[in-house]
Amino acid sequence: MLQIIQNLQTGTTSLIEVPCPLPQKGQILIKSHFSLMSLGTERMLVEFGKASWIDKAKQQPDKVKQVLQKIKTDGLGPTIEVIKRKLDTPIPLGYSNVGEIIGVGEDVIDFKIGDRVVSNGPHAEFVCVPQNLVARIPEQVSYESASFTIIGAIGLQGIRLLNPTFGETIVVIGLGLIGMITCQLLKANGCKVIGFDLDPDKIKLAQSLGVSAFLLEQSTDRISLIENLTLRLGADGVIITANSKSNDIIHEAAQMCRKRGRIILVGVVGLELRRSDFYEKEITFQVSCSYGPGRYDDTYEQKGIDYPIGYVRWTEKRNFEAVLNALEEGILKVDQLISNIIPIESFKLVYDEISESKNIATLFKYAENKIPEKATLVTNRNIILKSGKECIGIIGAGNYTSSVVLPILKKYNAQIKYLCSAKGLTASTLAKKYFIQNATSDYRILLEDSDVNTIIITTRHNTHAQLVISALEAGKNVFVEKPLALTLMELDQIEAAYKASKGQLVVGFNRRFAPLAIELQNLISGTDIPISVIATMNAGPLPLDHWTTDQITGGGRIIGEACHYFDLISSLTNSSINQVIMNSIDVAEDTASILLQYQNGSLGVINYFSNGSKDYNKERIEVYSQGRTAIIDNFKRLDNFGFGRSSISIKQDKGQDNQFKFFLDSIRIGGKAIIPIESILNTSKAVIGAVLSQKSRNWYEIK
């Protein structure tokens, strides 16, 4: 299928061929008929992409602080690579799409195939959207008119925050697409509406829609104008839908307001506020968030859990429906707002002139006869695979795949036949970059291909177990990024599948393969005397809504991240864990101490802390044995006390390179798995057992 993307590093806007997405649980697959180009938002993205690195930094001062902190902790080189990779990640453009449902995922109950719907899907021939971001189009509303729904919901949410009453005077600053729709909805609410803009054509258009609109350049004394139009009372409220860096807009908005007036910012303007503007009149100022309640809340958007209408009357989806009702009843008129309708293939006509464009709205039209059959696979036929060599399929095309897996596999000339991602876009762009023959959105294609002998899984944690089982049942070698599973039941199912399979199973416990960890292992090997190990992870906090901390999706940070240290200590002790107990000081279980008892008498302590200083190194491993001590500091140096010389590495190496090199060698040459399956299962059970022990307050025995 075709999709428009933006590269933030080069500023290039492209139309590329990507696999058609497949509807996941709670999602809806839509065949696009039209999508609306939002000039303001998309102009910002395009101009940001074309800006120099210095200008990009000026536009995002908060990100600059994060970069400086990362340089301090990780070094300049790795930080620059992260920035380049982030900017090089394609951004799908567009967020106002209309079309016909052609597929529904599990748990979708309010929609059926054939329904005409709106969604916040991008400019693409097929889009896959969570059901709470989809609304059904009334029969009397055309696809063209319905294309304005999502943009309309942005203006409507600003109005809801303003909470105007019948007869109030509201000023709208900025008469672009959102401003025009906002004016109409305010008029329908019984308000007197006054609009301002810099463009004479937009003033004329607004006046034709019944708005008292004035040109900003001509209305030099805008404050006096508002006083005259309101009998010297001042405006009851101001909605700002403009896009400007100027701080004067907020200042003038405050001067326009009456005492205890309200200002709602829907657009993007300078926010250096003058206290006196707000203090003397007790003016209220608020920033509106997109389409309304539910936006950016994964529980609402991704998991499909609606807010009860008795508590949250207007969610983003219900705002969509309200706009559609306004279109159906003729309250909102959008025909005059359409500047042009062009085929998606002619996208350059718009984007090449986006900086100077005065269009209000452009609609992209999609071919009606296209079907997504077999479109889940995009093949580069110029890439020829060699027979008799390993043949790899990768499921997951996120940050770990792009930053770690693919560069290392390329370094060791690994042969990759497939790269799979749920929506297809990242798989397609990375496949081109790394000369991978096929990009797909359907992982089943990889499992059904007899040429593929190895599957690498780098998806979110809650998908690992089932993908591992499916790959083992298909007879493949399997590498899965940690963790192996989130529950003991999943582990039992994986163990059964492994025993019935001929393939290898490796989990991405890379710390044991770090050069300094291998050196330390060699120093303490050759004796059965128990050792004591303390592993400390200064992990730092994650946002409370980060997917890793979600118990269903990520399993929490102990299972998802601390598992590395269970495996590393097991490797150093050359033994299996007998018992484990954990004590955490918080509900999130990301600040905890864990005690491990080993079969050979060794002891392990894992301190996984999220409450430490960012300036302190992240990882520290201490080994105590026979009057000797060795310390790995952040995987950059090994300090030995009683073992001999210390070692210092030029750069941090956590073992990722060795891990994949050894894994590829084991596939190519044969022989033992790089981590014994008994150790993998023991570690995985112990990690889950640690979390269970926190709840029971008792030692958990590993069986």
Automatic annotation (TrEMBL):
It holds the Pfam family GFO_IDH_MocA. Residues 178-297 form the Alcohol dehydrogenase-like C-terminal domain. It comes from Candidatus Defluviibacterium haderslevense. Belongs to the zinc-containing alcohol dehydrogenase family. Its cofactor is Zn(2+). GO terms for molecular function: metal ion binding; nucleotide binding; oxidoreductase activity. Residues 392-509 form the Gfo/Idh/MocA-like oxidoreductase N-terminal domain. The keyword Metal-binding applies. This is Bi-domain-containing oxidoreductase. Keywords: Metal-binding, Oxidoreductase, Zinc. Residues 544-624 form the GFO/IDH/MocA-like oxidoreductase domain. InterPro entries: ADH-like_C, Gfo/Idh/MocA-like_OxRdtase_N, GFO_IDH_MocA-like_dom, GroES-like_sf, NAD(P)-bd_dom_sf.
